[in-house]
Amino acid sequence: MPICSCEETINEFETLTRDAGRVQQDTLKKILELNADAEYLNHFGLNGRTDVESYKACIPLSVHSDVEPYIQRIADGDTSPLLTGKPVTSLSLSSGTTHGKPKFLPFNDELLETTLQIFQTSYAFRNREYPIGKGKALQFIYGSKQVVTEGGILATTATTNLYRRPRYKEGMKDIQSQCCSPDEVVFGPDFHQSLYCHLLCGLIYSDEVHQVFSTFAHSLVHAFQTFEEVWEDLCADIRDGVLSDKVTVPSIREAVTKILKPNPELADSIQRKCMGLSNWYGVIPALWPNAKYVYGIMTGSMEPYLKKLRHYAGHLPLISADYGASEGWVGANINPTLPPEQVTYAVLPQTGYFEFIPLEKPKEEESENSASIHYIESDPVGLTEVKIGKIYEVVITTFGGLYRYRLGDIVKVAGFHNSTPELQFICRRSLVLSINIDKNTEKDLQLAVEEAGKLLEAEKLEIVDFTSYVEKSSDPGHYVIFWELSSDASADVLRSCANCLDLAFVDAGYMGSRKIKTIGPLELRILKKGTFEEILDHFLSLGGAVSQFKTPRFVNPLNIKVLQILNRNTTKSYFSTAYGL
After folding, report:
1. For 9-22, how does the pLDDT look when each residue is reduced to its tens digit (9 = 90+)?
2. What is the pTM of this model?
3. What b/e string do you get for 558-579 counting C-beta neighbours within 10 Å, with b at 16 or more?
4. How far is CA 86 from the centre of its chain?
């Protein structure tokens, strides 16, 4: 993207956000005009009206189960205007790691355009702070299996829906250096081979790499953990100019062999640098000296991976990517110098119509650090009516056929950019751990694990990954926390960790229930190394994409396969004695 068009993009953003209220009205009008014939809208008696008042009066708030019957009809081949005026030709699969099965969502050209608008905006602001010249990007991205539904509609992840469209590639060329790896690697059928080749291609073009990217922080950490294990094989491939036998997929072999030439000097240099690193600290800038930053989604459930990612990134800044979901986009990161823990997202008022449900904490539950609250809800307010410091649930109306759709995300308004709010992502709204009156979310679980993890730091150990489960087969029920550790810890340390976890859940309902023994002692189960890798492989076998994989922080009892993997790999178990035996 030439400098002038970066400035143009910023100027356009400034203009749109100065009058966000009017832009919102225009955007809703445009969405409703395009989709005036949609059966969903007419079912509620909207009948072609496009003003905000009629829209809010006729159309109720919705969740996925409300639109599911319509999406199912689209998947079965019904081409009448159901959710949108034009027929939907693609569906996106959301990551589906929550309930163990993916959800279908509509995907169309308009959503592709809003994606490009968001990406171009954040790129323009990023490039102002960290200019990158012509070069390449080391991208850990993976296409996923494409499923054709009964009715002949292509269903795949939102990421794949984007990457397979020429219009997207064209739009992205302007704003980011091209990917080091050929398409065959991105769309390869075997994730492990694709990852190996992403690393190899990244090393071949190491001097040209200006940025390192993956959709999620988890994929970046996973890539460099893999690098620790395979770097000597990669060096051998580069030295001899011959691709490892590990790569067996013909299309990947052929594409990578074209760019792999014997280069002993590069192999020696990589070897020297790897040998000189202390516990892999700063491996990214050491091997990719011209990289300016590391980029990917780093908020919410990705926060636990930041410590490890900072270790690999050394002095390079971590920049959190934009805020969206398979359902649609919410905001762009226009303050790229903020660390991921403080990042905010400015809402682009032309990309959808946004409402916010004000959430108030009940008076007796004022503890700030607990996300585990049954909030009191008020009527939704518009984009420009939100108040700084307040928390809300996001409701979106998109160009892709979702109307007043509750995203289930809790955000805090950190401030305004002109008249559009800058949002901080707090957590997913859905409860994670609950047995009776206790209520704990993913954020509470994360805080508890961080607290107990401090006991491991003294032992030079780290938590590779974690998840949880509610064990209700015994009475009283209890929380089970699963940990995979970097290496073995003593029984004493792990007993202390179990007690620390138990005490770290400060939700009043949990503490009260533990005291009167209506919830049993928390159980910490230690897993074999490689368990979460096995869960990832299971997710991929269901047709998921690595770029979308999020470790499930809570395993639903219906997700039998994942529970089997966890139980089969449990090596030790420790019960808390924090509330007495």
Report:
1. 999 999 999 999 99
2. 0.78
3. ebeebeebbeebeeeebbbebb
4. 29
